[in-house]
Design a protein that fits this description.
217 residues, alpha+beta, Beta-Lactamase, 2 domains, five-stranded antiparallel beta sheet, disordered N terminus
């Protein structure tokens, strides 16, 4: 959950709240996040603000999913109003993920982090997409990692992490090269795991690591 002050929670905290808290804790501009069902009912939420207002927003934005689902392959829409930014992600079976941000920051939310959170939400809910969409927020397009670096700052080993499960086993990394053209404060590497599988790993904003796909695929 975000540490920002706000009304007290009005429901017991579920695993979904912990997963959504990854978004609200990662960026100061993310105000709140919630998962809602096909009826617009909020499953759980994290962040600041009035829970009732967030539920009303979820019920309202659920109506947008009707149009979103009619566009083949589209999973995400961004909306900016004078008061806030909105990131809406369509999930399977009519579910949706709503993230609210400060207005000017609606495009700043990391697609990698969003993909990782979507994957964790679907794992927790036992849901899966029913197609092979190439959307950048498809689950497990990116997954979160814990990485240990060598003295020269290059990644030496990594393991998969998730909000509601124990960390995976450590995998030694052989760095094959660096990724050029990364944004400032980001680093990227092409690595070989366990002497065989090649992956791209990225460190965003100098602190959050991701792998393309998962360490196990």
């Amino acid at each position: 959950m975000s540490s920002s002050a706000g009304p007290a929670r009005d429901q017991a905290m579920s695993p979904f709240a912990a997963i959504l808290g990854v978004l609200t804790e990662a960026y100061p501009f993310v105000r709140a996040a919630c998962v809602f069902d096909s009826e617009g009912e909020t499953v759980d939420y994290a962040g600041e603000g009035d829970p009732d207002e967030l539920r009303i927003a979820a019920a309202t934005w659920q109506l947008a999913l009707v149009g979103l689902q009619s566009v083949d392959g589209l999973r995400r829409i961004l909306v900016r109003t004078p008061r806030e930014g909105v990131v809406l992600v369509a999930l399977p079976d009519g579910y949706g993920l709503l993230v609210t941000t400060r207005p000017i920051a609606v495009t700043a939310l990391s697609p990698r982090l969003l993909s990782a959170v979507v994957g964790e939400v679907l794992d927790e809910a036992g849901l899966r997409f029913h197609d092979d969409t190439l959307s950048d927020v498809r689950p497990k397009a990116w997954s979160r990692l814990e990485v240990d670096c060598a003295e020269d700052g290059r990644p030496a080993r990594a393991r998969a992490i998730g909000t509601t499960r124990a960390p995976g086993a450590w995998h030694p990394l052989e760095v094959l090269g660096t990724i050029v053209g990364m944004p400032r404060r980001d680093r990227g590497y092409r690595v070989r795991l366990d002497g065989s599988v090649e992956k791209t790993i990225v460190c965003e904003r100098g602190r959050t690591w991701f792998v393309d796909g998962t360490l196990d695929d």
